[in-house]
Amino acid sequence: MRRLFKFVKGVVMRSIVEAVFQHAQRRPQQPVVFFADQSWSYGKLCAEIERFARALRVWGLRAGERVALFLENCPIFVVTYLGTHLAGGIVVLVNTQYQQVELSHIMTDAEVRLCVTSSAGAQALLRLQLPDLAALVVVDGAGDPSPTGSSESMAFADFMMRGESTELAMPEAEAPAVIGYTSGTTGRSKGALLTHRNVVANVEAVTTAWRWTENDHLLLALPLFHAHGLMVGMHGTLFRGARVTLRPRFEAADILARLDADASITLFFGVPTMYARLLAEAEKQGVPVHLPRLFVCGSAPLSPQLFADFERLFGRTILERYGMTETIMNLTNPYDGERRAGTVGGPFPGQEARIVDVRTRRLLPAGEIGEIEVRGPHVFCGYWKRPEASAEAFEPDGWFKTGDLGRCSADGYYTITGRAHELIISGGYNVYPREVEDVLGSHPDSAEVAVIGLPDSDFGEQVVAVIVPREGRTPNEAEIIAFCRERLASYKKPRRIIFARTLPRNALGKVQKHLLVEQVQ
Ligand code: MLC
Ligand code: AMP
Description:
This protein is α/β, with parallel strands linked by helices. Among the domains are: 16-181, Rossmann fold, CATH 3.40.50; 423-520, ANL, C-terminal domain (GMP Synthetase, Chain A, domain 3), CATH 3.30.300.30. The protein is built from 16 helices and 27 strands. The strands form 5 sheets. Strands 2-1-12-11-13-14-15-16-17 form a 9-stranded mixed sheet, sandwiched between helices. The chain has a 9-stranded mixed sheet with strand order 7-8-6-5-3-4-9-10-20, with helices on both faces. A 4-stranded antiparallel sheet has the order 18-19-21-22, with no helix packed on it. The longest helix has 18 residues, at 42-59. 48% of the residues are buried. Residues 182, 227, 298-301, 320, 322-325, 344, 402, 404, 416, 419, 425, 430 line the site of adenosine monophosphate (AMP).
């Protein structure tokens, strides 16, 4: 690690990994990650990052090649994420709920060469035809010297032993850092490619806006394989030299117990479903004695009712913000000023936002609903291997079309009112109806399919499918749900299936989903 310090002498932090090495140089003993009974210092984290980076290079990873992380929350996630950056690779994030359809697509589309995963993840991957995937690094198993697929499989501990002396350098600001897959409105999901510059610009803005310092301690139960947990929670911590208590998953009682037990926790981030569950749990067992200075909510709309109920019981005003994989964070309620219910505030420092007419793309006055566009150094550089989709996503003068509809008040507070494209947000996870319709449409019993989102008291929205059965078939609801679950992440499966004789269509034959929603509610 000492050898690397020579690269990080300045105060400029061009990447998260560079920031972490700077903190380690200054305060090697300072704790950074608490996980179960483990406590990781900045010094130990950097030593492991460097070992993994060297191992990757010795194994044969070249600059710009893709390493997928298909992994639940754990310190090794952080080690392999930053180690990939130090080795010059690009990280591909993979939700651990993904099944055959999503896994095949992402691994193939990103041409992933090496994947860090669990033994269960390795088994799922080895069942697929993935010719680009040369190696699996298994964090909880012994690896398999003679796997059935084309990939070699190695235990993480053995892989880490490979690290010999090899030249490493901190990544350049313009180098690609991470690909996050976002569900596509048409066809398959697209990889949003963020550079180190995008990521650092984002984290600078977020940590400035929320007054995040090295004295902060975040309690993080969001998954690290999505932007919220990783690029807001983990990046903010690492960038500022702060601490994080990382939980393997979210459980309301566990969060309340952690808060009760640890007065040093100052920050908590979650999606609305988490806040609803925290509220319900605290109503039963009481509010913790120690509360963080800041609760932040995002990824899905926070209802004004939940905002008010939480404030009443916890005595804290949730700060709601708005982001997306392509841009990480865009809009935030103010830290000091009024945090207004039902709004997501205004742009972060150094960023711009505006509302335009969906058709004419002209700027709209305050109060009128249009598409939200954003611009700034935080905005991604384009979709992986999708030049047309990338070109379509931007205005000629660099504004990014978010696909979200909203309005801005005269005093600068944005409200998200809907989406330009069909999208269901269930518990903070995005589900594009088209993806589920494709799978349901391939079931032998279904002739026509439409997937809609209906209100859900826990997840905000739920996935519901309306199916017109093929003639002579009598499909079974449970069997169709199981069919879907085998192929897609479980949160995308319909909660309910309604069998119908026809679907309402307009003159052009397009399914009128708003009518379906009215009919089935
Ligand atoms: C889990 N399940 C869901 C679900 N989460 N179903 C619908 N919607 C969801 N969000 C299903 C599982 O498939 C499983 O079904 C059953 O519920 C129980 O699984 P679980 O693992 O026990 O679920 P639980 O712990 O209750 O998860 C709920 C949750 C989780 C809210 C903690 O969904 C979650 O962590 N959401 C956060 C997602 C997130 O990080 N989004 C940020 C994206 S970034 P079965 O049938 O298999 O038993 C982004 C940008 C931004 O949006 O602005 O931040
Ligand atoms: P993803 O593509 O998974 O990153 O999800 C991004 C989408 O989540 C955005 O385009 C919005 O539709 C939605 N979103 C994020 N934050 C909020 C919020 N505070 N309120 C409403 N929707 C949100």
